[in-house]
Amino acid sequence: MVPAKEADREKIFSWLTQSDLTSSMLGEPNYPDHPIPSWEEFCTDYTSDFFSTSGDGKGRNYIILLNDMEIGTIGYDLLDKIKNRVVLDIWMKSEEYCGKGYGSESLDTLCKYINKTYNITNFVISPSTNNKRAIAAYMKTGFEIIKTLTKEEQEKEFGIAEYNENILMIKSL
Fold this sequence. Notes:
The chain is 29% helix and 28% strand.
């Protein structure tokens, strides 16, 4: 895992919006409540801070490496020392890197890094209720299902809402 740079932003966007995994996370027909973002929408959500040291301690993206090959991205956002939590996000570059434990290992590595660096002990991930594969993978990594959140509950808790219903999952170190 290496910190993502501004030069990585466009390829991370393409992994999210144009890969063989996109339909399993976003857009019609499976996710009509969460359309595929435009470049502008992506840049609004993933500001330049996510790709520079200015995001450290707030939110940051990383490139997941397998040997020297880029296979996905992982990051954190909404780091909150008062609530002792951080929100995580991850997606792989393509289907060929799924189901092999690379994402689980990356989540574990990022949790340990954030814990050591910022003393955060609660890690939040919140996939759509429709994304059964992601939910199962996160559970294997030690995340526990807490509850289902409506869009209104997501807005209240995190200031943003993605899907009509998300599963709130937490891992504590």
